[in-house]
Amino acid sequence: MLIKTRSRLELKESDVTSPEWYGNRRQFLRLGAAMSATAAVGLGLAQQVSAGEKLPNVVKSSFTVDETVNSLEDITHYNNYYEFSTEKTEVAELARNFQTRPWTVEIGGEINKPGRFDIDELIKRYPLEERIYRFRCVEAWSMVVPWVGFPLAKLIKDLDPRGNAKFVEFTTLRDPERMPGQKRDVLPWPYVEGLRMDEALHPLTLLAVGLYGETLPPQNGAPIRLITPWKYGFKSIKSIVRIRLLEQQPMNTWQQVGPREYGFYANVNPEVDHPRWSQARERRIGEFLKRKTLPFNGYAEQVASLYTGMDLRKFY
């Protein structure tokens, strides 16, 4: 289990950049992490929120990295989101009018407390944290992103899972009229992902509802998405409408489409190349030179024990 201690993963107060300079890349290029230091009040939020609104009562988490955060422009205009487009630079415009309210998440499967939950009720229920995570795409590019959300473990424990619940399956919205990329057969829709239960319960696993202190923009997976920072980005499913706890391992979308290229675990492993490109190095968005890819995306100390005894070349 991850132990919360002050270490090299925690930012110093001197690294904080004020919100007004988040998007000013020319004058303040990469000047550090933007933190929402507002104190927590009670156990939830005091108001309903919608896409683009400031999230109140967000606390800074110690689960963070001391690396330069990508700009809001980078994060919101270079997006893998096939539900809208296969072109990363087109997604923001195509998703611009995507409505995320009303929105409910259906939760069921091997749990004793199933139900359909309104997104704003979920946001009110759980205290929100800002966590600055590395984000590594299987296509060998990366970012550092200030997500806002709550641990998936808190939600799962409240659902009272049964003893035979071994996996968690997530499903994205299927609505071709609102998501024009779904009118093409580039993937089988809706998009599906999954985690092993111990991965889902790990303290690093986040259900993100915000970015840079505000609710998620549509192109970044609004209104709720999964973040597993030690795995490739395709595991971090967007616009979730259903969560199920299962006894058997679910088949995730990319594993179904290309089993030679995309496995169930998707742990960042620089020693296992994608069949069409190397994973040994990555291009951080906003930088010219490539950098060395870190095992588990730099989170080996926290998560490697989850895979003790597993052949990570076979279980990729």
What does this structure look like?
This protein has one domain: Sulfite Oxidase, Chain A, domain 2. 12% of the residues lie in helices and 22% in strands. It is built from 7 helices and 13 strands. The protein has helices at 72-77, 91-94, 119-125, 152-158, 197-200, 253-257, 300-303, and strands at 58-60, 104-109, 115-118, 128-136, 141-151, 167-172, 192-196, 206-211, 214-215, 225-227, 240-246, 281-284, 291-292. Strands 1, 4, 5, 8, 9, 10, 12 and 13 form an 8-stranded mixed β-sheet that branches. The chain has a 5-stranded mixed β-sheet with strand order 3-2-11-6-7. The model is unreliable at 1-51 (pLDDT under 50).
List its traits.
316 residues; alpha+beta; Sulfite Oxidase, Chain A, domain 2; eight-stranded mixed sheet; five-stranded mixed sheet; 13 strands; 12% helix; disordered N terminus
Distance between the termini: 22 Å
Helix content: 10-25%
Number of domains: 1
Total count of helical runs of at least 4 residues:
7
CATH homologous superfamily heading = Oxidoreductase, molybdopterin-binding domain
- Strand proportion, as a percent range, falls in 15-25%
Question: What structural category do the secondary elements indicate?
Answer: alpha+beta
- CATH architectural grouping: Alpha-Beta Complex
Summed over residues and divided by their number, the pLDDT gives a mean of 87
Write down how many β-strands occur, each being a DSSP E stretch of 2 or more residues: 13
This entry's quaternary arrangement is single chain
Order of helices and strands: EHHEEHEEHEEHEEEEHEEH
- CATH C-level category: Alpha Beta
- Stretches where pLDDT is under 50 for at least 5 consecutive residues are 1-51
Q: Gyration radius, to the nearest Å? A: 18 Å
Shape: globular
The CATH topology is given as Sulfite Oxidase, Chain A, domain 2
For the sheet with most strands, the description reads: 8 strands, mixed
